[in-house]
Every structure is written in C-alpha cells, then in structure tokens.
User: Fold this.
Amino acid sequence: MKASAKTRRLVITIDGPAGAGKSTTARALATKLGYIYLDTGALYRAVAWKAKVSETNYSDSIAIQNLLQQMDLHVTLEDDTTRTIVDSQDVTAYLRDPEVTRVASTVAAMPEVRDWLLPVQQRFGQTGGIVAEGRDMGTRVFPDADVKFFLKADLDTRTTRRYQESRQAGHGGNQEDIRNQIHDRDTRDQSRDIAPLVPAADAVVIDSSSLTVDEVVATMLESISARL
Assistant:
C-alpha cells in the first residue's frame, strides 16, 4: 500500500512502552506508506549522550537545563533513518548504548527536557506524511494526529526482544537485568507528572505479544486506509 501524490498525507503516531516494537513497526509502516519515519526517542537519547560525555549530573534538573542552553541539536531524516547531530557531531551510532538508554529514561522524565524538545518534534509534523513513534506522540506532541496507535506487549516478550537486540548490537547483558530495567522504565514513564505514558483516548491499542511485525503493520493499515 503506497500513498499516491494525490492522497492526503497524514500524521500517524505510535506510542507504547520499551520493547513493544514501536521502532521496527514505525519504520516498516513509514516505508509502506512512503512517509517519513521520526524516532523521537533518539532526541531524548541525544540529551542523555551529551550529559554522559560532558559528565553532567543527569539527575540534577538545573544542570540539565544549563546543558540544554549550550546544546546544538539537529535531526535529519535520510530514507528511514533519523540522523541525530549534536554540536556538529553525528551521534546516531552511540544512542543505543545501554548507559545512554539508562540516562535517557531519567532525563526524559524532566519537564524541562520535554518542553525543550516539544517544538523540535512538532516541526516534523507540519506538512504531514510522517509516522512518529515515542511515548507521548498522540497525547502531547501531536494531539490532533490523524491516526493514533498504542502498541503494547507483555513484559516477558519485551524483555526477550530487548535481550536479543542487545546481543545483536554486541552489548551483552542478561535477561534479568534487562527485565528490571524495562520494569523500572515503565514505572517512570507511567508515573511522571508531565505527559505520562498512557494511550490517547482515540488511539487504536494493539497487543504485539504474539504478532509479527508484518501482522502489526497490516492491522495498522486497516485503520489508516479509512483516512486516506
């Protein structure tokens, strides 16, 4: 299913917890539609990476605010890849480092960081034709999105997926640690005061626990087809 030049180009959001398959699904869906894929998690990871390499106390909101004031962040979209540039350096390859992931979950809960990144994310939706995935895409960043999805999966499935991803990336780790990290991330995401992780009221909720990526994408396309 490809969007023709005459077809209205939609803003589509995919939210959900860690390991639910958002990134893989969003890339596949964007490719099917001929849309741009926006990995908003990369933006939070970029802040985390900057805090890590500059040895900034990432638990100190004042220190992070000062960091943001000095940070130059740009995002470019090349094919299905979000390239993240921090202070003229392409840091895309470093953003999946386990330590960056851990720090990102802390800075992402800070209202100052979320407010600073909000207009950066919203600019990509101005012309439509985008699939944006994250944790508050349908509730805060693009509340008027044309189609919203919330992708979930049980904790065991998400742990296995993240463990396999970690091994493939050469990071190692064990499943119990990864399970605990995901559980802790869920708790932080769901309990934060600003933009907590919840499905948008008008989101289509999909449980991907027993579904392949192709099956999830097919389910999404059924919902999207009515809006094209």
